[in-house]
Amino acid sequence: MLHGMIMPPTDPERKLYQIWINKEEKIASFHEIEGGELTEFKTSKLFQFYLDNLVSHLYRFQ
């Protein structure tokens, strides 16, 4: 679904892609959220694969 997108790192200083996940509420956010657990990736490809997986599991994005 998101394949082919070129995304800059969400944390440019550390060159990491970050997303906060609240598994209980099934919410994903590109910013810190209450009850969210930070997940980090070093490559855009892995990050996009993870986002696709969240979409397929019906996570809501903020």
Features of the shown structure:
single chain, four-stranded mixed beta sheet
Write the layout of secondary structure elements.
Blueprint: E1 17-22, E2 27-29, E3 37-41, H1 44-56, E4 60-61
Parallel strand pairs: 2-4
Antiparallel strand pairs: 1-2, 1-3
Structural class: alpha+beta
Low-pLDDT stretches are none
The run of helices and strands is EEEHE
Give the proportion of residues in helices. 10-25%
Radius of gyration: 11 Å
Q: Supply the number of helical segments.
A: 1
In total, how many domains does the architecture comprise? 1
Total number of strands: 4
Describe the protein in words.
- The protein is an alpha+beta fold.
- The protein has one domain (17-61).
- The protein has 1 helix and 4 strands; from the N terminus they run E-E-E-H-E.
- The chain has one helix at residues 44-56, and strands at residues 17-22, 27-29, 37-41, 60-61.
- Strands 3-1-2-4 form a 4-stranded mixed β-sheet, with helices on one face.
- A hairpin with a 4-residue loop joins strand 1 (17-22) and strand 2 (27-29).
- The longest helix is centred in the C-terminal third of the chain and has 13 residues, at 44-56.
- The protein is globular, with a radius of gyration of 11 Å.
- It starts with 16 loop residues before the first strand and ends with a strand.
- The mean pLDDT is 88.
